């Protein structure tokens, strides 16, 4: 039978299948962070169990870590969270990259960067943005804390069969348009529930032409439109990116791996339950105006009038969003002034993202009254960025150059918006209070973030002279 890429990976991992029951899948890589693992370890303790495959389990600290220093965690709740992870990893023999470690970072930046993430793997983590790893042709998805316990104890996971969807990206990408613009445009088109129940494969020449970083940005936001996972078939770009990374196979094993990885493509004639197409030719720099990632518009446009939505639910949501965001229908998006610009997160905190932001801000200054935080997604991204002088470009421009972590992507650490403050943020969620109580978030790409920092209002690099 002709199968999709996702079905191939799935089938290769079934350890038990019975009619009328979910499949039991083997898990190749289990990533952990401090937020969703404590109860799972407690569960193991209570049942007197150990971790089945500590060698396939790896932890990092990211959500609760400060980004202004590598030692002091002032908030007691965050400190307890981190100390608990350290104790659990020590007790159960799990490798941990703690604050200050050269590999520490946001779990979805750290995994790929270390070469832990490889094509054809099943990868889980108690975190919804585990979909990021799908960019390598891995079947990767977020799981809940009770499932984390199950995987820790057994290295397997019970899963009902998802539906299959293809998203075809066609047309010619306009200059200055990034992967972030594409995924924001897609989510605005299909809505935040558009992918529900599906494992998605992103395909087409536009995807093939993207860098691994761009592909990760797209896979990362799969969950923001309801998809369970978002895969991209591995190709030469994938192999070149992975080669030589610490956990990547070496020598003969590398050659054998690549030979296998080349088979990880959707067969001609394989059937998808749903197929959608996004023509990228008309996509321009995109920003969100509302409080979910599907409430977006081209930066060149206006804040929409809620009355323009036919669907009553969408209309009501738009009304509430404008109220919360302090925006008026018809207002030009380019007139929206921001207080804070955040470059970072597992969506856009990789080296290429920092390069893109740096190239825009180089030789320019952050606008008066605007605070710009640049937060590498991992300590290794930070080191690589420093090796090419990106830190100096940001500091010179008046931005803050921080240590790695989730930072202002979500308010679980000291980097937060104050009530009423407005940000342009390269992260993936603009929910109410996401970046701090009362904070207002506009999701943007790294170049738009940098241009916005310079202008002080939502802006694209083409606005700068
Ligand atoms: C804290 C964690 C469970 C959460 C997630 O699952 O995604 C976080 O990473 C997020 O981005 O909201
Ligand atoms: S960077 Fe943001 S989206 Fe990614 S794992 Fe951290 S909190 Fe979640």
Automatic annotation (TrEMBL):
Please give the catalytic activity noted in the UniProt record: (2R,3S)-3-isopropylmalate = (2S)-2-isopropylmalate
Q: Which GO terms describe its molecular function?
A: 3-isopropylmalate dehydratase activity; 4 iron, 4 sulfur cluster binding; metal ion binding
Please state every residue range assigned to the domain named Aconitase/3-isopropylmalate dehydratase large subunit alpha/beta/alpha.
7-456
* Segments of this protein annotated with the region Disordered: 416-444
The answer on whether this UniProt entry bears the keyword Nucleotidyltransferase reads no
Query: Which residues does [4Fe-4S] cluster bind?
Result: 346, 406, 409
UniProt cross-references to Pfam families, sorted A to Z: Aconitase
Enzyme class, spelled out? lyase
Give the protein's biological function. Answer: Catalyzes the isomerization between 2-isopropylmalate and 3-isopropylmalate, via the formation of 2-isopropylmaleate.
Subunit note? Heterodimer of LeuC and LeuD.
Return the protein name: 3-isopropylmalate dehydratase large subunit
Report the source organism. Allocatelliglobosispora scoriae
Gene encoding this polypeptide? leuC
